[in-house]
Design brief:
The complex is a heterodimer of chains A (285) and B (164). In chain A, 41% of the residues lie in helices and 18% in strands. Chain A is of the alpha/beta class. In chain A, the strands form 2 sheets. In chain A, strands 5-2-6-1-7-8-9 form a 7-stranded parallel β-sheet, sandwiched between helices. In chain A, helix 1 (15-30) crosses helix 4, helix 2 crosses helix 10 and helix 6 runs parallel beside helix 7 (225-232). Chain A is globular and about 70 Å long. Chain B has helices spanning 44-52, 68-73, 117-123, 131-144, 152-162; strands spanning 4-5, 10-11, 13-21, 24-30, 37-41. The relative contact order of chain B is 0.12. In chain B, helix 4 crosses helix 5. Chain B is an alpha+beta fold and 164 residues long. The chains are: A alpha/beta (285), B alpha+beta (164). The interface between A and B is large, with 49 and 56 residues. Bound molecules: adenosine-5'-triphosphate, magnesium ion and zinc ion.
């Protein structure tokens, strides 16, 4: 009697072929994207989204073509921060057109697909009680589609804003092995405790870790971020001071680096963006 | 999953796919040598597993549309998210134009017969992953037999009829 591996193919569905086609489409889309950069942290609320939006704008100010993908499906904020909330999406033969936000940055976010402000993201399932069982796979596929089906065009950099934790990082690193990883912390022992683990997770991917950023510096006295980076064996990219204007401008949908580039926090962000650009240099942003 | 015809020791080939009907797909395989056919009937869990992967049993005739998986899976999409599609119920979700190319997705529930609270309590005791199928089967039974409500008597009758 024949065994499983004696039989070639799956009899006609070609599931393997379908998955390969999905990945082929992704590769093709990203072939015109110079660099993909993920902003991550094991800790929530440390400013990943704020940094992702502002760093994207810094790159745009320096003349790069930039996109931002909000990879936080359950707590999407990039449409708000970059000023494209409520825009309608246009589908063309090339894919779904990303609306252009501040400084012409192209944005794609789950926020643009959700029914109302209070609507959480829920996935269709035979039984809602069990929907969580499928969530990981469904969301990994959703991210793949956002990456592959959005018509990003030619970009120098695509910045990904990740949800808190490192699960999504692993998913994305498996889809985009050349991903550059930027890790964010704030100056507190509690944050360092968690981010230390995030550095380990990031280092275990095949993707290059571009470095650590300290955010909200000066808000409270705390441990040394440069030392955390050194201990983790990753570069230290710099520190962004706590600046309420950063929060205010994000709420207005106008990133601070675009509206007040001379502020101390904006200048700090520009320096970090240049450090990231330098780290990506071999891949020419 | 692969199917082998034991008599011929030959791998069976995909013959046809149907559904999903009440969360179940029917996938027929046929032996190219003797013509023997078997049908694989998936439960809603198995159907969902295939859906979650964004692949189609039976293969794909066309390229997937942009965001096809996402749009077919979202339980509460924004009706007017896409330019050129009218707002309202039909813009997305099961009624969305892309749903047609998704070879799965829960079928629209048939007109339902109301349940008494006792019957409701009883169906809640059925394991949740087969509950929707059981519920629809009983509703269909009640509708076919002209019952206006589903109470425990109707449930007992349905159980007898299905051999449940
Ligand atoms: N340097 C800063 N100075 C002042 N406020 C800041 C700074 N960085 C971020 N914020 C504010 O802190 C809040 C949290 O920031 P943000 O949403 O960017 O965090 P996050 O890490 O993306 O959160 P989550 O883990 O939920 O995704 C926001 O209101 C933001 O405007
Ligand atoms: Mg965030
Ligand atoms: Zn046979």
């Amino acid at each position: 009697m024949k065994r499983y591996r004696d039989i070639a193919g799956d009899g006609g569905s070609n599931i393997v072929g379908q998955v390969e086609a999905q990945l082929g489409k992704l590769r093709q889309r990203l072939a015109s994207v110079g660099a993909v950069v993920a902003v991550v942290s094991g800790k929530g609320g440390v400013g990943k989204s704020t940094l992702a939006a502002n760093l994207a704008c810094c790159l745009a100010l320096d003349g790069s073509r930039v996109g931002v993908l909000d990879a936080d499906l359950n707590g999407p904020t990039q449409a708000k921060v970059l000023g494209v909330r409520g825009r309608r999406l246009v589908v063309t033969d090339e894919g779904v057109e990303p609306p252009r936000g501040a400084l012409g940055v192209k944005v794609m976010s789950m926020d643009l697909l959700l029914a109302a402000d209070a609507t959480p993201l829920t996935w269709d399932a035979p039984v809602q009680d069990e929907a969580h069982t499928w969530r990981g796979t469904v969301e990994a596929n959703a991210i793949r589609e956002f990456l592959a089906d959005t018509n990003w065009g030619t970009l120098d950099a695509l910045v990904l804003d990740l949800p808190p934790g490192t699960d999504r990082l692993l998913t994305i690193a498996s889809l985009v092995p050349t991903l550059g990883i930027v890790i964010v912390t704030i100056p507190s022992d509690v944050s360092h405790l968690v981010v230390r683990k995030s550095i380990t997770v990031a280092a275990q991917t095949k993707s290059p870790v571009l470095g650590l950023v300290e955010n909200m510096a000066g808000l409270f006295p705390g441990p040394d971020a440069a030392k955390l980076a050194a201990d983790g064996g990753i570069p230290y990219l710099g520190s962004v001071p706590f600046d309420r204007e950063l929060a205010v401008s994000a709420d207005r949908g106008e990133p601070l680096v675009a509206t007040a580039p001379e502020r101390e926090s904006a200048r700090a962000l520009q320096l970090i963006a240049r450090a990231i650009r330098a780290a990506l240099a071999p891949r020419a942003v | 999953m692969k199917f082998l015809c034991l008599d011929c020791d030959a791998p069976m080939k995909l013959h046809s796919t149907e559904g999903p009907d009440e969360g179940s797909l029917a996938v027929t395989f046929r032996c190219p040598e003797c013509g023997f056919r078997v049908a694989m009937l998936t439960n809603p869990f198995e159907t969902q597993m295939v859906r979650s992967l964004g692949v189609k049993v039976g293969g794909r005739a066309q390229e997937p549309a942009p965001f096809e998986h996402l749009r077919s899976m979202m339980a509460n999409p924004r009706a007017d998210a896409f330019e050129g599609e009218a707002g309202g119920e039909t813009a997305a979700g099961p009624g969305c134009p892309f749903a047609a190319v998704v070879n799965d997705g829960a079928a629209a529930p048939p007109e339902t017969v109301p349940w008494t609270s006792e019957a409701e309590a009883r169906i809640e005791r059925i394991p949740s992953f087969i509950r929707p199928m059981a519920r629809r089967a009983i509703e269909r039974f009640a509708a076919d037999h002209g019952y206006a409500t589903i109470d425990e008597t109707v449930m007992n009758e349905a159980r007898g009829a299905f051999g449940m």
